[in-house]
Predict the structure.
Amino acid sequence: MAQARFAIIKRYVKRQISAGRWLPGKLIPSENELTRHYRVSRMTVNRALRELASEGFLHRVQGLGTYVAELTPVSSLLKIRDIHEEITERGHRHRAMVKFAVEEPVTPDIAALLEVKPESAVFRTVLVHYENDVPVQLEDRYVNPALAPDLLKIDFKRETPSHYLFRVAPLAEAEQVVESRLPDAFARRLLRIGPHEPCLIVRRRTWARGGVAAYAVLTHPGSRYRLMGRFKP
């Protein structure tokens, strides 16, 4: 029941934003107001707003409240691709360096994104993908073990996490937010870039068999990577 209420609040906030009733940069109703309106716990409202902030719809400021995120250019990609296929189709050589692949206790934010219980353990994989020996993507991925139980048995130098997920948990739905930001020290070191080079960051969730299969943060040096999409209305 709590999940249904959480989903209702999330859909309501998205509708207000998409309809233009809540404008970019404007303060939205407080957690207390939403709690009273929907007659739910503050934890339920907080989870909805926290996830919407992670997806780029909202911006939360400690002590001040929650605001509608400012509009930024977003590339609408029409196909989720495996980076190995992208690179080899260009006639280039792909290889992956595995930083780590582990099972670990879930954090509250990741539990909300994967829609799993707070006491759960999830799989986490961190890889650097190279194109002709140049690092072009840092992949930090969290996976629901219920939908991909053998993930950690895979040799990621032979098969990427994306390819494995496509194989065992066929994609049913996806959402992603694309933004440009300066990387943290961890990403700079693995991608071999300076502190002032902006990166293209893709935050992506994928669904399979009725549940969230994975949440990934894909960081690309801005000078080495482009995202493209094509569609017909």
Notes: The chain has two domains: 2-68, 83-221.
